[in-house]
Amino acid sequence: MVNRYKSFMMAVLLCVLSMVISVQACMVTFLNDSSGKIAIFNELDKTFTYILKNGKRRFGHHHKQAHFTIYTQQPKTRTEVWIPAYTVKQNTCSANGNILLKFSEVQDGIDLNNLFTITKHKPHYPMVRQLPMIQKKICHSCEAE
User: Fold this and answer.
1) Closest CA relative to residue 116, chosen from 140, 84, 77, 88
2) Taking 80 as the threshold, does the pLDDT of residue 140 lie above it?
3) SS3 content of the chain, % helix, strand, coil (to 5)
4) What are the residue boundaries of the structural domains of the chain, listed by start?
5) How far apart are alpha carbons 41 and 30 in whole angstroms?
6) Integer angstrom CA distances of residue 114 from 63, 118, 145
7) What band does 32 get if pLDDT is binned at 50, 70 and 90?
C-alpha cells in the first residue's frame, strides 16, 4: 500500500515537473492596447488574424522566433482597408519563456532588451488622394508647346 502511494506521488510529481520545465522560450504574446482593432499577419504560418481592443494573441514556435506584420485600419473609410504599419521580428528568445509585447511599445519604439527588430512602414496614400498632386506634376515642357 505504501509503495503504491509513493509510486503515485512520484508520477504526479513527474507530471507537474514536466509541465513546469517545458517552457516555450520563443513565444511572444501580443497585447492590443490601442483604441481600435488591429490585424496581424503571421509570417511563420501565413495567417491573418484580427485582434480586438485589449485582445491577446500568441505568436512564434518553441524553436522558431516570431515574425509578424501589424496592420492598422485606415481611418474614416466605409470599408475595412488595412495598411501595414509595423513589422516585428524576434531576434533572440527570452529566458523566461514568454514575452508580453504591447502595441503601444511597438509604436513608441521601445525594444525589450533588444529582443525585437521593429520596422515602421511608410504611410500609405491611396492613388485617389495623390491624384491632384500627380496632375500638377505632369509635364511642364508639354504645356510650353
Assistant:
1) 88
2) no
3) 30, 30, 40
4) 24-127
5) 12
6) 19, 10, 59
7) very high
Given pLDDT bands bounded at 50, 70 and 90, which one contains residue 41? very high
Q: What is the mean pLDDT of the chain?
A: 78
Query: What single-letter amino acid sits at 85?
Result: A
Burial (CB count within 10 angstroms: exposed 0-12, middle 13-18, buried 19+), residue 79: exposed
What contacts 51, CB < 8 A, 6 or more positions away? 30, 32, 37, 38, 39, 40, 57
For the whole model, what pTM was predicted? 0.67
Return d(Cα 63, Cα 124) in angstroms, integer. 34
Nearest CA-CA partner of 68 in 81, 80, 59: 59
